[in-house]
Amino acid sequence: MKIENNKVVGIEYTLKDKDGGVVDTNAGSGEPLYFIQGLGTIVPGLERAMNGKALGESFDVTVKAADGYGEFDANRKRRIPKSALNGMEVQVGQMLQASGPEGASVVTVSDVTETEIEIDGNHPMAGKDLFFSIKVTEIRDATEEEISHGHAHGPDGHHHH
Ligand code: ZN
After folding, report:
1. Given Cys at both, which of 14, 33, 62, 79 links 133, Cβ 3.0 to 4.6 Å?
2. H helix runs in 19-74, sequence order
3. d(CA 156, CA 34)
4. How far is the CA of 151 from the centre of ligand 1 (A)?
5. Contact indicator for 11, 136 with CB cutoff of 8 Å
6. d(Cα 56, Cα 147) in Å, to the nearest integer?
7. Residue 21 in 3-state DSSP?
8. Spatial contact of 139 and 51, defined as CB atoms under 8 Å apart
9. Domains and CATH numbers, the chain
């Protein structure tokens, strides 16, 4: 069986940046990442690379920023006065839940001064090329229920929403 749309796929992955630093990995954890191919739940460049791969196959793929977490958008940074924080102390690198016109989102504190802070709404990997090492650990047909939910269910059907 090969990977195509509406297959449940399990992978071990390691994501590195251009300097070879490990950003994220589940290799060796015994807990594969499961997704349904074709639903856009993983970054587009990686999903494209998964097409046609076979069970047990290992491969490396470089995903350009535009096909990964998107280009860096300077307009997604903004400065807000510290007085708006109601006394909350924040540090550079801290993640905050922010509410805006498009709903709730996670932002990263990118600067702190005496009077204001800067928050950055870009994904931490925005603007960066992604270097994935992938091993395909499972391929099976998705059930109709899984496709309608948009995610893979566990072996016993139990899952959390
Ligand atoms: Zn579900």
Report:
1. 14
2. 44-50
3. 14
4. 6
5. yes
6. 24
7. coil
8. no
9. 7-69+126-149 (3.10.50.40), 74-120 (2.40.10.330)
Q: How far is the CA of 143 from the centre of ligand 1 (A)?
A: 10
Q: Can you spell out the DSSP letters for 56-112? A: T-EEEEEE-GGGTT----GGGEEEEEGGGGTT----TT-EEEEEETTEEEEEEEEEE
CA gap 112, 93 in Å, rounded? 10
Q: Distance from first CA to last CA of the chain, Å, rounded? A: 29
149 Cα–ligand 1 center, Å: 5
Tokens for 33?
Answer: 């990442």
Residues in the chain: 161
Which single residue is written with the structure tokens 């007085």? 83
pLDDT, tens digit, 9 for 90 and up, residues 48-105:
999 999 999 999 999 999 999 999 999 999 999 999 888 889 999 999 887 777 677 7
Residue labelled with tokens 């639903």: 39
Handedness of CA 101, 102, 104, 106 (dihedral sign): negative
Structural contact between residues 108 and 76, judged by C-beta atoms closer than 8 angstroms: no
